[in-house]
């Protein structure tokens, strides 16, 4: 058993090194693309400033084409930012944290946006929750991505619940919405890289969430029913776990 454990650890370290090299290469490539993309966007804006859209039909037609280019530049930038976040998952900076405090900080950050969209936030946070080791910025990204997923499922507003508790020695966080839900085919594919049901979506949001949670030695699962809503359950080891 000890030999097998040692081999498993060596394989894990090899895969981590391999992933780090790929992530570094991919991140560098994404940065290289962002630089000329930024230049394109800036020059398109300068072109728009030179048009006389009030008095020239030709310039109005040109402005519509420029707006299309600008929209696609923004879309590409969003995809690149999501990809850079996806690549960064291997760079954890974990510190001892109170998960309830992280959830409360996120709620305070997201509350104004939720109010505008008619989304009620309902936290139910267990007292005396054991601490966890978290990369705080990446965990904020997890919460934001899951909140946006819920937001898109509740276009007319709804209820977003965040619950923390302890189960089977792990700290759990449930994010629950009462939105339109997902069918089984979508639920089974939603963590796949580049899979998206949204037009123009990068398909990196939920796959990034899963990679972040797994990098914290945790798990994420989902229950969903069409017309009833969706529940994501994150399970994390306590900071005093021998696996941390």
Largest sheet: 5 strands, mixed
Mean pLDDT across the residues is 82
What is the count of distinct domains? Answer: 2
Fraction of residues in helix? 40-55%
Second rung of CATH, namely the architecture of the largest domain: 2-Layer Sandwich
- Could you tell me the strand content as a percent range? 15-25%
Helix-and-strand structural type: alpha+beta
Number of strands: 7
Enumerate how many helices there are, as a single number.
6
Could you spell the SSE succession in H and E letters? HHEHEEHEEHHEE
Broad CATH class of the largest domain: Alpha Beta
Shape: globular
> Do you know the CATH topology of the largest domain?
Heat Shock Protein 90
Report how far apart the termini are. Answer: 20 Å
> In CATH, what is the homologous superfamily of the largest domain?
Histidine kinase-like ATPase, C-terminal domain
What is the C-alpha radius of gyration, as a whole number of Å?
Answer: 22 Å
Identify low-pLDDT runs. 1-6
- Going across the biggest sheet, name each strand in turn: 2-4-5-7-6
Write the layout of secondary structure elements.
Elements: H1 2-49, H2 57-88, E1 95-97, H3 99-116, E2 119-125, E3 132-134, H4 136-153, E4 158-167, E5 170-177, H5 184-189, H6 205-215, E6 219-225, E7 229-236
Parallel strand pairs: 2-4
Antiparallel strand pairs: 1-3, 4-5, 5-7, 6-7
Helix pairs in contact: 1-2, 3-4, 4-6
